[in-house]
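Lab meeting notes turned into a lecture example. A postdoc, R.K., suggested we walk through two folding results consecutively so the class can see how the record format repeats. The first protein's sequence and structure tokens come next.
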Amino acid sequence: ALHDVGRVAHQLRLERADADTVTYIIDRNVTYTNLCYADCSFCAFNRHQGDGDEYLLELEQILEKCRTVHEAGGNQILLQGGHHPKKRLSYYEEMLRGIKENWPSIWIHGFSPSEIQHFARLNGMPSMAVLEKLKAAGLDSIPGGGAEILADRVRKVIAPGKTMAGEWIDIMEEAHLIGLPTTVTMMFSHIETFAERVEHFLRVRESQDKTGGYTAFIPWTFQPGNTPLMKIPALRKQIEDLGYLGSSDYLRTLAISRIALDNFRNLQSSWVTQGKAVGQLTLHYGANDLGSLMMEESVVSEAGVSHPLTRRDLDEMIVGAGFQPVLRDNGYNPVA
């Protein structure tokens, strides 16, 4: 039963992470462009040249967004964007250097593995060289975006323009090798089978055994609103036939993540997709972290999902679940 799985996950969470606290971070998602030709079928965010609402942020606009984070007491910027067809590596290096010159203490969490692979191809460089250049320019860590489900059958259907499972893992392990920590995500509840979710867990667990470079695991559910996936009848039928059951499927999968991933200390809740009530429940289903108090979010919201919360909301969720709230940095260290 759901409660039994939750109880086991909660017990493991109390053993593996600090038993008294729940952490979160204040940051801002800066999505530097929505121009992207990867054309993932689960994405409602990307645009093509000529669509009319495509954009590319200039350095000044990015720095203005960073300034607001600094003034709000935030300590991290999450930089992610579409696979821009023309921008060379110098654009991204200049972006990183500009942020660090103005705010040396801001942690820059940026560029998922498929972006790294895209930069490598566009610039005719190995992915390791791209990572080294970005790190030298100021990159501190890499988000686990684009993992979706780490099973190639699924990826070939929903994201054929991005890294396959092995490539995603390889780029993350290269990052770990040069001292860039990363996270891992899992986007589920679409066309994947339970066996493919297990494949995702096993790949991630094996990679963590190898490098120890992943700081957190972050599962969330596919948000169907406005996505091409729901406009393709055959794929829509697959999703409806599998019929995953909303929040109960989410909580069960979160709990199984905690049980399966014995080498991960931090498991992050997705209140952004689940809302405040289920977000609070996650703290008894294996999660020890509420992720980010996002000052800006532009991808999930394009799918019609919006659960904006304040710092007070997060504190109330945590205290109400019986824990102490602690503000952290990207290394999961408490900050004053």
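The second example is placed directly after the first for contrast:
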Amino acid sequence: MQKGPAAVQRLGVFGGAFDPPHGAHVALVEAAIAQLQLDRVQVLPTGQAWHKPRQLSDAADRLAMTRLAFAHVPQVVVDDREILRTGPSYTVDTLHQLRVEYPQAQLYLLLGDDQRRALPAWHQIGEIARIAIICAAGRDMAVRAWNEEPDTPSPSPPFPDILQARICTLDMPL
């Protein structure tokens, strides 16, 4: 049974190309539900991705694959609004729509570690941080050690303090 807008107090928002959706996408959402005690997660395959250098697979196919990937997670609603939107898909536009639909809910923007590093380049990132708490997947230290030179600190993104205060890290399994 899905909860209506009035019952949703903690709403996760997870967008992406999902070309294709994979186990790490599902693991991130499941970790966010558990750690943030989310009532619902809107999973949104992107429409026209302004930041992708390659052509994405057909939107209907990506939507169908995303529905299959998350079918076992009862808190997930796969949302096609970005696919139906004309023009570029911007996260800030989707967050504004969800804020109107769920005015009492706290919004949590879920993203992978790769997208955390790209945040300074996001369209209207300051507005995004004002609307939602940004929750990024943390990279496990074993994975970091495997991918990086020993004793080399991971570069910190140049986030302003106000943005850094709105970012939390999700503990992710390997």
